[in-house]
Amino acid sequence: MFEQSRRSLILGSMGLASLCAARAGQAAPADTPAADTPDEMLPLWPGTPPGGANVTLTELARDNPDPNGKRNRRLSRIFTPLLVVKRAANPNGAAVMAIPGGGYSVLNYDGAGTDHARWLNALGVTTFILVYRLPGDGWAGRADVPLQDAQRAMRLIRANADRLRIDPTRIGILGSSAGGHVAGSLATRFDDRIYDPVDAEDNRSARPDLTALLFPVVTMGENAHVPSRTALLGANSTAAERDAYSLERHVTPATPPMFLCCAGDDRVVSPGNTLAMYRAALDAGVKAELHVFQTGGHGFGVQLPQAVPTAHWPEQFARFARYNGLFA
């Protein structure tokens, strides 16, 4: 296990030409490793992000490969939030923004980012991995920092839709664990004005066209994932603050169609979170689909043996996305 700068670890074995291309927002050279190389990286903010006037951070990435050699990079101390773009070889116009979790303390960049991008790219879906700021790093208005980045990211995806060959009316989000809380916040609070506009792109809609939440953090009250709540709201949050950031209290008929998935034996984030979000969606008349697997625990991804029940969530999500017009 070792630490290095976040940017160099994301870029992996890319050469100087690829690094310069990524900074310039251009495609990486064709000879770079496709499985690990972003086509480009889009910084979210033209200057210091909102609430960052007194913030100084050295961004870190920890590489903690498993015994089989699979990468498991965890990013932290994010000062420059960005979108990592993974283009499909045969794009069909659909796009998904993948939002990694990590308890609002780190970002699980591979398990809920690059792995999802490989699977979605194979379906023809352009994928954007959101590298968002973490609330406990000294930002003013800490609890809104991840949502600020998510709103801004969705607006930038729409701003670049023509160039990236995607349909601006077919952009979904896929959030895992605490990333599910970010995604659910965007799905329910896409119109909230939580930062001052910085350019014309902030006039664009931040509403996703479809939402998928995997074993998500939803509530800040009963059944809350306490480490996520503490990281987001601080150790001494009030009842009013907990209500304000409990997603199930903010679902409206304007919330986009929602795919929800968890395992009944999740001992990290209570399945009650997923169930509460499904009930709220039904009550609001939102199109929703719920899958609760018998086993699977927390943090399952797309690289599972087919005998494991949770291995089948990707195909179920793809069917839901096609039925609701996101996928071709």
What is the helix/strand order? EHHEEEEEEHEHEHEHHEHEH
Largest sheet: 8 strands, mixed
Number of DSSP E strands: 12
Q: Which ranges are low-confidence, i.e. pLDDT below 50, for 5 or more consecutive residues?
A: 12-35
**Widest sheet: strand order?**
2-5-8-6-9-10-11-12
Strand content: 15-25%
Molecular structure report:
This protein is of the alpha/beta class and 328 residues long. The chain is globular, with a radius of gyration of 18 Å. Helix 5 (178-189) links the parallel strand 9 (171-176) and strand 10 (210-214). It has nine helices and twelve strands. It has helices at residues 6-11, 16-24, 110-122, 145-159, 178-189, 226-233, 239-244, 272-284, 313-323, and strands at 2-4, 40-43, 60-63, 73-76, 82-86, 95-99, 107-108, 126-131, 171-176, 210-214, 258-263, 288-293. Helix 4 crosses helix 5. Helix content is 28%, strand content 17%.
